[in-house]
User: Which sequence fits this backbone?
C-alpha cells in the first residue's frame, strides 16, 4: 500500500507544493507579523483572526491547485497494465492526496508558527493570542481537507484521468465553505466533534474501494483513444456539409476585442490565473494603499509589501512567455502580447490601490485629524504622524511662539539605537498657556487642512482653562473639521513612488528571465534565471523585514517616515507632485522598453510550457 | 523580389555546435520546394527561422523582403504554417480556433473555409486535445490555408498520419497550387509526396545545403553508379571525380551518385578509372536521398 | 483519360505523361481534335503539381502533338495522315529498340530474334479481342540508360 502511495504520479508534486506553501506562508505572514506586533501593543481587537485569514488565503489556493491541476491523473498507463488491483491504486492515490494536502497545511501552519514565535521573541514578551490558536485552526482545516479531497476523488473513480467540470467543482466548493463554517461550531460543542468529518471521509473512501468496479479505464478524452474519426464526422471527400456544422462558425468575423481575449486566454493558465491571480493582485493593491489605516491598523506593512508585490508580479510572468509558441503561427504582434502580460496585472494592482484609497477615504471622511486628547489628566495635541517632521540628527526643535513660549515636542525614535527622530511641531506641554495651545492648534490646522484659522478664533470657540490651570477643550473633542467643512491636504504622491519601486524590481528581475528564453538555453538555466529573481526579491523582503524587526521599530512609524519623506521631497521640488509622477512614468517606461526588447527576442518551442509554472509541472 | 530568402544562415542550439552553417536558399512566387534531410539536419530549424520563431546567429532571412522577427504581423498575415508539432491551443474548441484565425487574417476566405470544413468533417465543439493527430492536423491545415497565403510553410505536415490522411493533405495542397499559385516550402520524409508536388528539391545535410536542383533535373541528369570494389575503383578516387556528389560504401559495391546522365557517368568511370562494367541508372528520389546522405564523408 | 503516373519510377512525371499521351495519340485512342483535361483538373486527378502537367503539355505542343489556344481547352493536334503514320512507326521503333538491346545482350542471332518477334505478334493478335489497347510497357522495366 505504501509503495503504491509512493509511486503515485501525484507524489512528485508533494515536495514542491509543500515547499511552495511554506515559502508563501512565511512571506505573507511575515508582513502580517508587524500587524500583530502593533496590535499587541495597542490591544486592538479587530485583528483577531487576521493571521489566520492570511493562512487560509495561502492554503486554500494551494489545495485547489493541487487537487485540480496536478492531481487529476489518478494512475499512470504503466500502472494500469500491472496486476495491482485497481481499487487499491485508487485508494493509494486518494490517501496520497490527503497526505499532500495535510503536508501543505502543516508547512503553512509551521510557517505561521515560526513567525508568531519570532515576533514574540522580538517583542520580548508573549503577545495576546488573537482569536483561535494556530494549531487548533490547523486541526479544523485538516478535518475539512480530508473530506473535500475524498469527495473530489469519488467522482467517477474508475476513470484514469479526472476531468473536473463545473458540476463537480461547485458542490465541492460549497462543501468546503460549509465545512469551514461548521467546524468551529462542532469544535466548541465537543473537542472531538470535528473528527466526524474525516470519519465520514474515511467511510466514503472505504465504501468506494469496496464497490470499486475496476479496472481503470482511459478517460474518454484520452488522445490515444482517438483512433478513428469521431462519430459525427463526415467521411473525407464528401462534399455536402451539414448546415448545423457550418452554422457553428460565427456569421461575422469576431471583433478585435474577442480576438484579444482569446489571445490572452491562450497564454494564461486557466482557471488558475483569474481564480487566484486576480483576487490576489487586487488584495495586494488594497494593502499597498494603506487602507488598513482607516480601520485603526498601522500602515507600516504598506511599504514593506512592495518587494513582495514585485515577487508576486514576477511569478505571474513566469508562465505566459512559455506559451508564446501557441501564438507564433499567428499574426499577433509580440509587442501587444507583452503589453497584455505587463499591463493587465499592473492595472489590476492599480485598481486595487484605487479601491483601497476610496474605501479608506470614505471611512475617514469627516474624521477629525487634529485632536486635543486627554492623556493622564492633561490634554495634548495630536496629529497623524504623516504631518509630523523628521529630525535626522536627533535634535528636535522645541516649537515656540512669537512671545517666546515653547514646549517639549512629542518625539518617536525611528530605529532603536539610532538618533533619528520623528517629532511633532505642534506639541503642547502640560504647562502651556491657552494662547500657545491655540497657536499650535492653528498651526496644525494649517498643516493638515491647508486652512488658515486664527488662534484667537480657536481659543474662543474650542478651548477653556480648567480649575487646575490646565487647558482643555470646551466640548469633549475638537470639531474644527466638521464645523468648517475642511478638506484634508493631500500628501506627497505615494502611488508613483510605490509603482516605481515595485515596477523597477519587477522589470529588472523579469528581464534576465526573458533573455534566457531562447532555444539554445537549457531548461536548467531558464529555471535558475527565474528562481534567482524570485529568491532575490524574497531576499529583499526578508532583509527589510529582519532589519526592521531587529530595530524594534513600530510599523506605523515606518509608514509615517516614508510618507513624510515623500511629501517633503515633492514639496521641495517646484511642481513636485507632477515631477514625481513624471519621473516615475519615465523610468518605468524606460524599463518597460528594456524588458520589451528581451521579450521580443524570446524563442518559444512547442512543449516549453511543460516546465513553466510554480510547481514545475502541469500547473 | 524573392518571396523567401535565406542568406548565410547560421544557427546553433548548443554553443559551438552549429545546426545550420551558412545556409543560403531563395524561393520565388509560386515555387514549390521540397526540403529533405535526415532528422536533425536542420529542416525544422530553417522553417522556424522563416517564421521568425527562431533568430539567426549569423546571416539573415527575409520573407516578402521583410524580417519576420521585426515585422511579424505583416509577414505572418501572408504566410500559412503547419507543423508536425502541435501548436494549436489544446484546451480551445475547434470552432474557437477557427474563429481566432478568422479574426486575425484579413484575407480570410469564408467560402474556402466552409468548403474545407465540410470536407474534413470537423466537429466544432471538440477541444483540440481530444482530437486525433490527423484531425488536429486538418484543423491546422484549414487555418493555414483558408486565408489564401502567398507562402505556405509545412514542417513534416504529414508526419504520423495514415496514408489516406496524407493523401488528403496532398490533394488540398495541390488544389491550393491550382487556385492561388501559392509558394510552398515543405519538409517531408515521404518521398512519394515530394516527387508529386515539388518542382525543386533542397537537401540539407549536417547544416549545409547538399543539393539544390529542380526535381526533373535531379532525376534526368543524375544517376547512381554501382561500382564493385577493385584496385582501380576506390572510394577516394571516385570522390575525386568532380561530377561525383557522394559515394556510399556497401558490402558488394560502391554506390556513387553522379551529376551526369547514366551514359555519361559510365563513360567517365571508364575514362578516369579504367573500369568498364559500372551499372549506371536513374533512380527515384528516395534512393537518391539515401545514397547521398549515406555517401558523405 | 487513362493516364497512370508513378512518381517513384525514376522517370520524371512530365516525361511519363508525355510518353503516354504520345502513344495514345499515335494509337488513335486520342482522336485529332479531342479535348484533353485542363492542367488544373489533370493535376488534381493525378495528384501532381500543375507545373508538371504544364511542362508536359508545353513540350507536347512544341512537338505538335497537341494544340493549346488561350481561353480554349487543350486539344489533340490534327496531324496529317503521313505524320501520324510516321509517329506510329516511331513509337514501335522505340519499343523495339529496347527489345533489340536485350537480344544483343543475350547473344541471340538476328534471324532468330525476328522469328520470336513474329511469334509474339501472333500471340498478341490472338489474345487481344476487339482492339483493346495494351498499356504501355514504359513503366514496367527500369530503363537502362536514358530514353528520349
Assistant:
Amino acid at each position: 500500500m505504501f509503495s503504491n502511495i509512493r509511486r503515485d504520479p501525484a507524489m512528485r508534486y508533494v515536495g514542491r507544493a509543500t515547499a511552495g506553501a511554506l515559502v508563501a506562508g512565511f512571506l505573507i505572514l511575515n508582513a502580517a507579523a508587524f500587524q500583530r506586533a502593533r496590535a499587541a501593543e495597542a490591544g486592538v481587537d479587530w485583528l483577531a483572526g487576521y493571521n489566520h485569514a492570511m493562512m487560509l488565503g495561502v492554503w486554500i489556493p494551494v489545495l485547489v491547485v493541487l487537487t485540480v491541476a496536478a492531481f487529476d491523473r489518478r494512475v499512470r498507463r504503466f500502472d494500469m497494465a500491472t496486476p495491482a488491483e485497481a481499487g487499491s491504486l485508487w485508494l493509494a492515490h486518494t490517501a496520497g492526496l490527503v497526505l499532500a494536502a495535510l503536508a501543505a497545511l502543516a508547512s503553512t501552519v509551521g510557517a505561521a508558527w515560526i513567525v508568531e514565535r519570532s515576533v514574540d521573541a522580538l517583542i520580548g514578551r508573549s503577545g495576546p493570542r488573537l482569536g483561535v490558536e494556530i494549531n487548533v485552526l490547523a486541526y479544523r482545516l485538516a478535518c475539512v481537507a480530508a473530506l473535500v479531497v475524498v469527495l473530489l476523488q469519488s467522482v467517477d473513480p474508475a476513470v484514469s484521468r479526472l476531468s473536473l467540470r463545473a458540476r463537480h467543482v461547485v458542490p465541492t466548493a460549497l462543501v468546503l465553505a460549509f465545512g469551514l463554517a461548521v467546524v468551529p461550531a462542532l469544535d466548541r460543542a465537543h473537542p472531538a466533534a470535528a473528527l466526524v468529518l474525516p470519519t465520514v471521509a474515511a467511510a466514503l473512501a472505504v465504501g468506494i474501494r469496496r464497490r470499486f468496479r475496476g479496472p481503470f479505464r482511459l478517460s474518454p478524452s484520452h488522445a490515444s483513444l482517438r483512433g478513428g474519426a469521431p462519430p459525427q464526422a463526415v467521411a473525407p471527400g464528401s462534399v455536402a456539409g451539414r448546415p448545423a456544422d457550418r452554422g457553428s462558425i460565427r456569421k461575422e468575423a469576431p471583433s478585435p476585442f474577442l480576438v484579444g481575449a482569446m489571445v490572452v486566454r491562450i497564454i494564461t493558465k486557466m482557471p488558475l490565473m483569474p481564480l487566484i491571480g486576480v483576487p490576489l493582485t487586487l488584495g495586494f493593491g488594497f494593502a499597498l494603499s494603506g487602507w488598513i489605516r482607516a480601520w485603526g491598523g498601522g500602515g507600516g506593512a504598506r511599504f514593506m509589501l512592495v518587494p513582495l508585490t514585485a515577487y508576486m508580479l514576477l511569478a505571474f510572468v513566469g508562465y505566459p512567455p512559455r506559451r508564446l509558441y501557441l501564438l507564433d503561427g499567428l499574426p499577433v504582434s509580440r509587442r501587444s502580447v507583452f503589453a497584455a502580460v505587463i499591463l493587465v496585472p499592473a492595472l489590476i494592482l492599480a485598481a486595487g490601490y484605487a479601491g483601497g484609497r476610496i474605501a479608506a477615504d470614505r471611512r475617514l471622511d469627516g474624521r477629525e485629524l487634529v485632536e486635543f486628547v486627554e492623556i493622564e489628566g492633561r490634554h495634548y495635541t495630536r496629529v497623524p504622524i504623516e504631518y509630523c517632521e523628521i529630525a535626522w540628527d536627533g535634535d528636535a526643535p522645541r516649537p515656540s511662539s512669537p512671545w517666546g513660549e515653547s514646549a517639549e515636542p512629542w518625539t518617536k525614535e525611528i530605529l532603536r539605537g539610532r538618533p533619528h527622530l520623528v517629532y511633532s511641531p505642534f506639541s503642547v506641554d502640560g504647562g502651556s498657556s491657552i494662547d500657545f495651545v491655540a497657536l499650535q492648534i492653528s498651526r496644525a490646522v494649517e498643516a493638515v487642512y491647508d486652512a488658515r484659522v486664527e488662534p484667537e478664533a480657536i481659543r474662543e470657540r474650542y478651548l477653556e482653562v480648567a480649575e487646575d490651570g490646565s487647558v482643555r477643550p470646551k466640548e469633549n473633542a475638537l470639531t474644527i473639521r466638521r464645523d468648517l467643512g475642511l478638506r484634508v491636504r493631500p500628501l506627497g504622491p505615494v502611488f508613483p513612488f510605490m509603482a516605481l519601486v515595485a515596477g523597477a524590481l519587477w522589470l529588472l528581475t523579469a528581464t534576465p528571465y526573458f533573455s534566457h528564453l531562447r532555444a539554445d538555453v537549457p531548461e536548467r538555466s531558464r529555471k535558475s534565471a527565474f528562481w534567482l529573481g524570485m529568491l532575490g526579491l524574497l531576499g529583499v523582503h526578508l532583509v527589510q523585514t529582519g532589519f526592521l524587526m531587529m530595530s524594534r521599530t513600530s510599523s506605523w512609524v515606518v509608514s509615517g517616515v516614508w510618507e513624510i519623506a515623500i511629501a517633503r521631497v515633492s514639496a521641495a521640488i517646484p511642481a513636485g507632485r507632477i515631477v514625481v509622477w513624471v519621473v516615475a512614468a519615465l523610468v518605468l517606461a524606460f524599463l518597460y522598453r528594456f524588458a520589451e526588447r528581451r521579450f521580443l527576442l524570446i524563442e518559444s518551442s512547442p512543449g516549453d510550457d511543460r516546465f513553466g509554472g510554480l510547481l514545475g509541472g502541469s500547473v | 523580389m524573392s518571396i523567401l530568402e535565406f542568406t548565410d544562415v547560421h544557427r546553433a542550439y548548443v554553443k559551438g555546435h552549429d545546426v545550420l552553417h551558412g545556409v543560403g536558399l531563395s524561393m520565388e512566387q509560386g515555387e514549390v520546394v521540397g526540403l529533405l534531410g535526415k532528422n536533425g539536419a536542420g529542416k525544422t530549424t530553417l522553417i522556424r527561422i522563416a517564421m521568425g520563431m527562431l533568430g539567426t546567429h549569423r546571416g539573415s532571412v527575409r520573407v516578402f523582403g521583410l524580417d519576420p522577427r521585426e515585422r511579424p504581423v505583416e509577414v505572418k498575415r501572408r504566410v500559412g504554417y503547419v507543423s508536425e508539432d502541435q501548436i494549436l491551443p489544446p484546451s480551445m474548441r475547434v470552432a474557437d480556433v477557427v474563429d481566432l484565425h478568422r479574426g486575425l487574417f484579413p484575407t480570410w476566405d469564408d467560402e474556402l473555409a466552409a468548403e474545407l470544413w465540410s470536407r474534413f468533417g470537423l466537429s466544432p465543439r471538440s477541444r483540440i486535445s481530444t482530437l486525433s493527430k490527423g484531425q488536429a492536423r486538418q484543423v491546422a491545415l484549414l487555418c493555414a490555408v483558408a486565408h489564401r497565403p502567398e507562402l505556405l510553410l509545412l514542417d513534416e505536415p504529414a508526419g504520423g498520419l495514415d496514408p489516406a490522411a496524407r493523401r488528403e493533405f496532398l490533394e488540398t495542397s495541390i488544389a491550393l497550387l491550382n487556385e492561388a499559385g501559392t509558394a510552398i516550402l515543405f519538409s517531408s520524409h515521404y518521398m512519394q509526396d515530394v516527387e508529386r508536388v515539388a518542382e525543386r528539391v533542397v537537401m540539407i545535410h549536417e547544416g549545409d545545403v547538399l543539393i539544390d536542383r529542380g526535381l526533373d533535373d535531379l532525376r534526368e541528369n543524375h544517376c547512381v553508379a554501382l561500382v564493385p570494389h577493385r584496385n582501380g575503383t576506390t572510394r577516394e578516387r571516385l570522390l575525386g571525380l568532380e561530377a561525383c556528389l557522394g559515394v556510399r560504401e556497401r558490402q558488394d559495391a560502391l554506390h556513387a551518385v553522379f551529376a551526369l546522365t547514366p551514359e555519361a557517368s559510365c563513360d567517365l568511370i571508364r575514362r578516369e578509372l579504367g573500369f568498364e562494367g559500372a551499372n549506371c541508372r536513374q533512380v527515384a528520389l528516395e534512393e537518391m536521398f539515401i545514397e547521398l546522405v549515406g555517401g558523405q564523408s | 483519360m487513362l493516364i497512370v503516373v508513378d512518381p517513384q519510377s525514376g522517370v520524371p512525371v512530365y516525361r511519363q505523361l508525355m510518353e503516354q499521351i504520345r502513344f495514345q495519340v499515335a494509337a488513335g485512342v486520342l482522336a485529332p481534335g479531342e479535348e484533353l483535361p485542363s492542367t488544373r483538373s489533370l493535376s488534381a486527378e493525378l495528384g501532381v503539381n500543375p507545373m508538371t502537367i504544364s511542362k508536359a503539355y508545353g513540350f507536347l505542343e512544341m512537338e505538335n502533338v497537341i494544340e493549346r489556344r488561350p481561353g480554349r481547352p487543350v486539344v489533340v493536334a490534327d496531324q496529317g495522315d503521313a505524320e501520324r503514320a510516321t509517329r506510329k512507326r516511331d513509337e514501335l521503333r522505340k519499343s523495339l529498340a529496347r527489345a533489340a538491346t536485350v537480344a544483343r545482350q543475350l547473344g541471340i542471332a538476328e534471324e532468330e530474334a525476328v522469328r520470336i518477334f513474329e511469334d509474339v505478334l501472333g500471340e498478341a493478335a490472338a489474345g487481344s479481342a476487339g482492339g483493346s489497347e495494351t498499356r504501355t510497357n514504359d513503366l514496367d522495366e527500369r530503363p537502362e540508360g536514358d530514353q528520349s
